[in-house]
Amino acid sequence: MIYDILALLGGLLLPLAFAPFNYPVLAVAALLLLFAGWLNVLPRRAFLRGYLFGLGQYGLGVSWVYVSMHDYGGASLFEAAALTFVFTAFLALYPALAGWLSVRFFGGGRIYKLLVVFPAVWILVEWFRGWFLTGFPWLQIGYSQTDTPLAAYGPILGVYGIGWSLAFVAGGILAAFHSARKPRMIVAVAIISVLGLGGVLSGVSWTQPAGEPFKVTLLQGNVPQNMKWQPEFQRATLQMYTEMTRQSWDSRLIVWPETAIPAFYHQVKDTFLADLEAEAKASGTDLLIGVPFYDQVQDRYFNAVVALGKSPGVYFKRHLVPFGEYLPLRPVLGFVLDILEIPLSDFASGNGGQTPLVAAGHPLVASICYEDIFGQESLAGLPQAAYLVNVTNDAWFGDSIAPHQHVQMAKMRALETGRYMLRATNTGVTAIISPKGEITVAAPLFQRAQATGTITPIAGSTPYALWGDWPVVIALGLGLSLAAWHRSRRVRE
Description:
With 493 residues, this protein is of the alpha/beta class. Helices cover 46% and strands 14% of the residues.
């Protein structure tokens, strides 16, 4: 019973390792408590403890879902609470699955389980969660380490490699308590080596400058979500962004947030945007603007970023937000739309072969909203792209922990690719992130602001940009397959 309580406690501790709390060591403590509860139990007990851990992890860590549905989605208090509970209860199945798999299919001693099985299964289940049912990689443990020595593994192994390193350290600490003196020393050396190598790798630059630095400005309009789509505020919104843009014509690039224009592209293309583009060309400035796009030929709606200036173009969002931009399993889940009042919730997804946008004289990787939380997808356009741009509208989350968690994942994308990330949001966190994953310029939250700074275009590829998540996934999968085969062979003998 005590380990059941400790598993729930571990789950509650884990979100505190992430932004905005930023106690990354608690991620180690959380996994240590969970792994301890998975030792010497039956698969069903490991499932239960994993589930309790998940209830704590997601009950606290994604509590902002309630804010989105109640404050901005039109759901009543009861409806929002019920839907948030269902969402949390579903996500809790992932750590429960990790516990069940670890105990059901892998035998061996405690040290073997703690150092090999538990860390590997945990990361593989995280990877599965990252793409199953369109994916939800929120609160993957690697993100909690963006400001620790383990972050240096990001350009090589990505967030899953960092996560495995963290899980190995947690398992290793617990293994040391279950070891004799000599094995304990070996485990201690292994832990120190993992941490020490991270410190060494932090000084390695995998990419290099590809041109002269240039000035950029990111606009944060701070438009209230409940006013954004009201027709009477459309003119005021456009005027506000125009004035902010005109104050920044000395920048080579200006970026507006996601759906900053509360109208369809074809409605403003030949009027408002044509005039603005003429000014931009006269000033030698390029613009990247978030705007909803209606394809009148196909009768389809897209969430888009348009480039205005020397190299016009458009990017259509590829990875849509379930329930926010489209409804999965509409015949079954159609009742959700009757609860939530989300405008523009029937977008189509862009294809994967889009021509990269070019701005400030360089190709770039564009992403919209939570597309930047998918590492593998953020590699599209590399290594040709010189920097990354994300436009988002985290106003849906209100003054919760979600905007801080989101920008932490954007920092990981900069780390993994070795490139600057420009992040323009409606309410924050609007920021310029360096190739080392450090925020160099940021606008204050929930204020109308302009974040201005200088970035350098980047060339070259990090190992992660070349190979993505597959080296970690394949290595862990093969390792566990060999372990399972070895166990079955011993059982037969």
